[in-house]
Amino acid sequence: MGDIVAASIAKLSQVQITTFFSQNAPLTQQKCDQGAERLIRKPVHPTSVQGGTSYTVVSDDGTCVIQFRSSSSALDINFLKCVEQTYDGFMPHHEFIGVFGELYVYKMGNVGGISMYLARKELHQSNPSLLRQTVSDFARYVGIYISHAHSSEVKEMAQLTFAHTGFSHRHGIIRRSRCSVQIVTS
């Protein structure tokens, strides 16, 4: 099943790349790749998962990500700075580089890992430690949000979101302490 999902995502990404450049002609994938390589002075290749409104490449050494976006899909750098501060360690630093043709160019660190879609098979194999770690990391991520919330309404909304998704019922109880989030499995 994992191979089928990976193949489907690869096809979807190729369609998204083709669509993105047809909507942003005369720029081409090759021109953007060359621009990214000149910018970071390293070879690049497209990421395995693309978005519908951007084209994203990663350096071959995996350290840097460059993203090209149309003006209608420009990132809000000020908002991202707040997100980076709140989710320190989970969120890459975003930097607006400038405009290439009509496209906005952003540089960011690579947070690593692979798409959850591509890792589904591995997460559900007989050894549950990978799934447990993924759930734990997700809980830590949300716990940081809850602990940084400044109002009881925001905290309550985050907790209700957990309850609504059934996360706590399927994967154990989330217990938040002052400094950490723990997953308690049954």
Layout of strands and helices, then pairs:
Layout: H1 2-23, H2 29-40, E1 44-46, E2 54-59, E3 64-69, H3 77-86, E4 94-100, E5 103-109, H4 116-123, H5 129-148, H6 152-165, H7 167-171, E6 173-176, E7 181-184
Antiparallel strand pairs: 1-2, 2-3, 3-5, 4-5, 6-7
General description of the model:
The protein has 7 helices and 7 strands; from the N terminus they run ααβββαββααααββ. It has helices spanning 2-23, 29-40, 77-86, 116-123, 129-148, 152-165, 167-171; strands spanning 44-46, 54-59, 64-69, 94-100, 103-109, 173-176, 181-184. The chain has a 5-stranded antiparallel sheet with strand order 1-2-3-5-4. A two-stranded antiparallel ribbon has the order 6-7. Strand 2 and strand 3 (64-69) form a beta hairpin. The longest helix is centred in the first third of the chain and has 22 residues, at 2-23.
Number of helices: 7
Task: Identify the CATH homologous superfamily of the largest domain.
Answer: Phosphorylase Kinase, domain 1
The count of β-strands is: 7
Please name the CATH topology of the largest domain. Answer: Phosphorylase Kinase, domain 1
Summarize the structure.
The chain is α+β, with helices and mostly antiparallel strands. Helix content is 49%, strand content 20%.
